[in-house]
Amino acid sequence: MPFVTSATVPGKEYDVIVVGSGAAGGQTAYTLAMDGATVLMLEAGRNYVPEQETPMFQTHDQAPLRGTSTPEKPFGFHDATVDGGWQVPGEPYVNTSQEESGRFDWWRSRMLGGRTNHWGRYSFRNGPYDFKPHARDGLGFDWPLSYEELATYYDKVEMLIGVYGANDGLENTPNSSPGCLLPPPKPRVSDLLVAQRAKKLGIPVVAGHRAVLTQVLDHKNSPPKLHPGNSSAQQIIAKHMQSRAACFWATPCGRGCSIGANYQSTTVHLPPALATGKLDILVQAMVREVTLGKNGLASGVSYFDKTTGKSSHAAARVIVLAASSCETVRILLNSSSPRFAHGLANSSGNVGRYLMDTVGSSVQGQVPLLESLPPHNEDGASGGHMYSPWWLYKEQLAGQLGFARGYHIEFGGGRNMPSLGTAAGIEWLTGGSYGRQFKEDARRYYGSFIGFDGRGEMIPNEHSYCEIDPGVKDRWGIPVLRFHWKWSDHETRQAAHMQKTFAQIIEAMGGRVKGEVLTDGARAIAAGGSIIHEVGGTIMGTDARHSVTNSWGQTWDVKNLFITDGAVFPSNADKNPTLTIMALAWRAADRILDLMRRKEL
Ligand SMILES: Cc1cc2nc3c(=O)[nH]c(=O)nc-3n(C[C@H](O)[C@H](O)[C@H](O)COP(=O)(O)OP(=O)(O)OC[C@H]3O[C@@H](n4cnc5c(N)ncnc54)[C@H](O)[C@@H]3O)c2cc1C
Ligand code: SF4
């Protein structure tokens, strides 16, 4: 089924155009196509076939420079990103400040499936507080929907993509409905030690939640819950679920997974959507703008066909932007017309505003208790098997912490496949050793390191936004984004708190911190955008004056124009955003289907 060309597109009539094929575009197209809507997906990158292209079993010595990271491949040679990174050739962006504190780093993946081919797969639900943060502490914005309104969509997404985890019943850390989560993998040795010692500090350590199949999906019971009353969709997804194998605990998920054991849009959303016969995909199609008809409705999109070098147009009843938060903003701002001189759907002036990332800060340590362990395989499900949800809600609400929002802790240690950097820098422990002694030291310390990454909530502010740069254009002549960025004290203090906490855990494990524990949060915080959880830019809300869309991602100004990526987030909870993006996208697609059935679109 069809990967189409721009020569065939104009002759077909589509119900919906979806721009982008990552988590947002994949989920939107899946839901629409499974329910019978005809969909054209436009993707700026090339086709990508994980079953054929994933270098799952290559060892580091089979790669240039033993697979280490380079500017072209920041996550190493074997990383799944085939066209993309912090810089994409011919597609610049501009920062108004080069200072670490005022910079926004923008990661883009130009390929079918976008960033989902190599994301970390951490999949947490936002909790009830996360949808009403302003009501709780007076800062930022509330969402125009509650946790309860999204809960069934979280259930569906977890059942469809496969997420391991456990229901721990902790504050603001919702349980999933029965049958949604897969069993978590066994903790690693270092996980058990972290859990034991963190508990003494009052920090909970529970099963991680990641989109990895620890067992084959329930292809008998889940399909009727995913698509009630739709037997054709049930059959398609039941068959597809059986084609996905369970994880065999051996290869780095960042390279992708050729057996479909983790979530990638290319292995999970797109194959069943294509199997409906309702989805056409046009790759190498760089969308420039959404076009507006005389009736004030979106009529289609104009795009640059990278294979022919020509501009083209595609038309549909409904247009969905799912190009990733900042790209969606860029498309809207570049879609100006006499009616929308400052960008489409921008009567509020808020398109580009309230850009957010996740607060990040890291501390590494070495733990003598983990030295010289007997050889054993700890590869596991590639990423974290356990994590710590935020635990200081009461203290924070009582104003005892000096910052308003929380963070969770992702941590990792263990004996992963050795690489070029495995024993690099151990002179901070050995004092410098050579020859036989160095080999003995490398064996002794291998697997005894532990790293903690904080992932915290950023509060939206007026100083963090993007707009169109008046001068710079990309290689197709499309104007590019210019970023403005500023952290508030809430974020920098939170980063300093992370540093202190991680050092305490390492010390409680009897370990030593590597390097300095940063007490200055401005130094401790990672650059804006660098955690790659950017959201906001077209925030949803309850009215057209203060927000760009309603709770279904439908723009207030143009009723047949929807946004289903992270741009609509009015806050960015500490929980990594992708599961919520997918839950919102499913809900938005259901709304589109409903409005189309009622002939309101
Ligand atoms: C290394 C890494 C680790 C991550 N780890 C996690 C994690 O553990 N948990 C988590 O929740 N999130 C994680 N993320 C973030 C996650 O990948 C994103 O939140 C998610 O992919 C967003 O989905 P999206 O569909 O909005 O964007 P993307 O996945 O980026 O997809 C957007 C697609 O749109 C296409 N596109 C862009 N512009 C245009 C245009 N003009 N015309 C046509 N097509 C266009 C792009 O080429 C791309 O394919 C991680 C990201 C990275 C890079
Ligand atoms: S660890 Fe499991 S899910 Fe990840 S790539 Fe390997 S087999 Fe696939």
Q: How many helices in DSSP terms? A: 16
Assess the beta-strand content as a share of residues: 15-25%
Low-confidence stretches: none
Q: Shape, please?
A: globular
Bound molecules: flavin-adenine dinucleotide, iron/sulfur cluster
Helix content: 25-40%
- What's the overall average pLDDT, rounded? 96
What gap, in angstroms, lies between the N and C termini?
27 Å
Question: Cα-atom Rg, whole angstroms?
Answer: 24 Å
Number of strands: 22
Largest sheet: 7 strands, mixed
Structural class: alpha/beta
Structure, explained:
This protein is globular. The model has no long low-confidence stretch (mean pLDDT 96). It has helices spanning 23-34, 50-53, 128-131, 133-137, 147-161, 189-200, 222-226, 231-243, 265-275, 325-334, 393-397, 427-430, 435-445, 489-508, 521-524, 578-597; strands at residues 14-19, 39-42, 84-85, 94-95, 108-109, 163-164, 181-182, 206-207, 279-282, 285-292, 298-305, 310-321, 353-356, 359-366, 386-388, 407-413, 449-456, 465-473, 479-484, 512-513, 535-537, 561-563. With 601 residues, it is of the alpha/beta class. Helix 1 packs parallel to helix 9 (265-275) and helix 1 runs parallel beside helix 16. 26% of the residues lie in helices and 18% in strands. The longest helix is centred in the last third of the chain and has 20 residues, at 489-508. Strands 1, 2, 9, 10, 11, 12 and 22 form a seven-stranded mixed beta sheet that branches. The chain binds flavin-adenine dinucleotide (FAD) and iron/sulfur cluster (SF4). Flavin-adenine dinucleotide (FAD) binds next to helix 1, strand 10, helix 10 and helix 16.
